[in-house]
Amino acid sequence: MHLAQMNIATALVDLDHPQMADFMNNLDRVNALAEAAPGFVWRLKGEGNNATDVKVTSDPRFIVNMSVWQSAEALFDFVYRSDHRAVMVRRREWFEKPDGPYQVLWWVNEGSRPTTEEGLARLRHYAEHGPTPYAFGFQRIFPESEAGPLDLQPEAHCVGWT
Fold first, then answer.
1. What is the DSSP letter of 143?
2. Residue 61 structural domain
3. Using 50, 70 and 90 to split pLDDT, how confident is the model at 144?
4. How many whole angstroms separate alpha carbon 142 and alpha carbon 162?
5. Structure-derived torsion over alpha carbons of residues 48, 19, 94, 119, reported in degrees to the nearest 10
6. Summary mean pLDDT of the chain
7. pLDDT classification of 147: cutoffs 50, 70, 90
């Protein structure tokens, strides 16, 4: 099994607005960092080599990001312990504060690639039901087996919305 993740955001302004320039200009670097990270398997890409042009709603400022990782620890290390964190620190400059969960994790069979529809459904489930084996977050990672949930204690590493 591999771990899939989706995160969503709504930009404060259009993606081509000067306020979004630093975010947009860092996408290639951060995506390359992800692809080189231990445990990386796959990421969602549109025509621009990132996912910002993958539209899943009619709102042009709503963006999604999806990836698959070999383990929860590998994803956690990339998100909170790599240079990705430096960009995450600045998310308030670019994105609206979410009114619910903005990231969801779930297990997928090795070799499968989740769809954006599946990711959004998992995120809705997480928002409505909290962490379950179907959809969860870093605070309560349900293992692929029956061993019980794991807490990677992300609060010490989280930045931006706390």
1. P
2. 2-156
3. confident
4. 23
5. -20
6. 91
7. very low
Helical H runs in the chain? 21-36, 72-81, 84-88, 91-94, 116-129
- Count of domains in the chain? 1
Distance separating alpha carbons of residues 117 and 20, to the nearest angstrom:
26
Determine, yes or no, domain membership for 108: yes
Q: Write the CATH number for 124.
A: 3.30.70.100
- Chain position carrying tokens 């290390």: 77
pLDDT of residue 140 exceeding 60:
yes
User: Is 117:84 a contact under the CB 8 Å cutoff?
Assistant: no
CA–CA separation, 66 vs 104, rounded Å? Answer: 10
Could you tell me if residue 141 is inside a domain? yes
Asked whether residue 27 is assigned to any structural domain, the reply reads yes
Neighbours of 72 (CB within 10 A): 21
